[in-house]
Design goal:
Elements lengths: L1 H13 L4 E3 L3 H4 L6 E6 L6 E5 L2 E4 L1 E3 L7 E5 L8 E7 L5 E9 L14 H4 L3 E6 L3 H8 L9 E8 L3 H7 L10 E5 L4 H16 L5 E6 L10 H14 L2 H11 L5 E6 L3 E4 L8 H10 L7 E4 L4 E4 H7 L2 H10 L10 H14 L4 E5 L5 E5 L1
Parallel strand pairs: 9-10, 9-12, 10-11, 13-17
Antiparallel strand pairs: 1-2, 2-6, 3-4, 3-7, 5-6, 7-8, 8-18, 12-16, 13-16, 14-15
Helix pairs in contact: 6-11, 6-12, 7-8, 9-12
Length: about 375
């Protein structure tokens, strides 16, 4: 936490220009509509991408979470080896600040010596939060990668697009062990908590569970939300090999309680008076945990040990936490984003760990 504060203070004191590109650039640069989105630490700074002397200027975008956000629309990158992001100095000179270089990567399966029996030897629950029916159809295509034994559960918030499809009998309900329709509170974290309460109160037992949701992220421009969702889902449900690697990693040590996309493992520092601190402190007290920093998966899709979360989520406290969730459209600070971090705190309690699964994308970032 001290290092985090020192960096923030130093950045303010020296007013050093910082250009940040969101980490889901890896999926975006390999999509049919590539682009880069991020933010810059000072207003009115020119940003552009340089591809072999062709320049693509950034467009300012409005985001509720950061200032000075931008988006760079890029051409087809199939034959592109390098992208340089440049910023314009006060003197009018363009200076490189970030480079994206294509690397050759082996298929994930070649890196793992995969034991195909591990998935079939584990009882699994898949917890789906369905808000957008079109994205739900995309996710349902991935169920073919699962090997029995497994059960799939789905939570649908009331009055959302998926709920309307459900009422019109347009969803493939036969895929699901149980469908729960409930209040639209807490965003995807509300769905997770409702489903955990149902599983635990009903006496279900599993070795592992996965949390997946129909993430769209409308605060981001163009297809950036799709790229974020793809980065989250790909290493945990994107293929049979991905599931095998995730579960092998999860059960490789007794202290590993949660695994997800390695590029999206972040660290939360609970700083008094900042952001969601008061809610994080409240949840820490409710679940009898010390207030401490924690790793978490930004976007909250992961595999986790069922026994760990069963132990850490007593039904009485879980019911209280569910009642406290704000409506889905509630802005920050909110329990939705607090739970995104607090899930990590539950996983890392008592010496537990979160591990990131290595991605298989081609472009890597280097700060110049």
């Amino acid at each position: 936490m001290l290092v985090f504060l020192i960096k923030r203070i130093a950045r303010k004191l020296f007013n050093r220009l910082h250009v940040h590109i969101e980490p889901f650039y890896k999926a975006s640069l390999e999509s049919e509509k590539p682009g880069l989105t991020g933010w810059v630490s000072r207003p009115n700074v020119g940003i552009r991408a340089n591809i072999a002397g062709d320049f693509f200027s950034a467009t300012p975008v409005k985001r509720p979470d950061v200032k000075n956000a931008f988006y760079i629309d890029l051409p087809d990158l199939a034959s592109v080896r390098q992208i340089v992001v440049e910023s314009k100095t006060a003197s009018g000179r363009w200076t490189p600040c970030l480079e994206y270089t294509r690397q050759e990567v082996k298929p994930v399966a070649q890196d793992a010596s995969i034991n195909k029996s591990i998935q079939m030897g584990l009882k699994k629950a898949i917890l789906i939060h369905a808000f957008y029916p079109d994205i739900l159809e995309e996710i349902e295509k991935l169920y073919k990668h699962l090997k029995h034994p497994y059960d799939i559960f789905m939570f649908i918030p009331e009055s959302c697009p998926a709920h309307q499809s459900y009422q019109r009998n347009e969803l493939n309900v036969s895929l699901y062990k149980k469908i729960i329709v409930g209040p639209s509170t807490g965003k995807d974290m509300g769905g997770f908590l409702h489903q955990m309460h149902f599983l635990l109160s009903s006496g279900f037992e599993y070795d592992a569970f996965a949390v997946i949701h129909t993430k769209r992220s409308p605060q981001f421009p163009e297809n950036m939300g799709d790229a974020w969702r793809q980065m989250l889902i790909s290493p945990i449900l994107g293929s049979e090999d991905a599931i095998e690697i995730s579960l092998r990693t999860l059960f490789s040590s007794d202290i590993i309680n949660l695994v997800g996309c390695g590029d999206l493992v972040h660290t939360y520092y609970p700083i008094r008076g900042h952001g969601n601190y008061s809610r994080y402190r409240h949840l820490s007290r409710l679940f009898h945990l010390k207030i401490a920093k924690t790793d978490f998966i930004a976007g909250t899709m992961f595999w986790a040990r069922f026994s760990k979360f069963k132990r850490m989520l007593p039904l009485e406290q879980l019911a209280i936490a569910i009642r406290e969730l704000e409506p889905g459209s509630h802005g920050d600070p909110s329990f939705a984003h607090t739970w995104e971090r607090f899930v990590g705190r539950l996983a890392t309690s008592d010496g537990g760990k979160i591990l990131g699964i290595k991605s298989n994308w081609h472009f890597i970032e280097t700060r110049v």
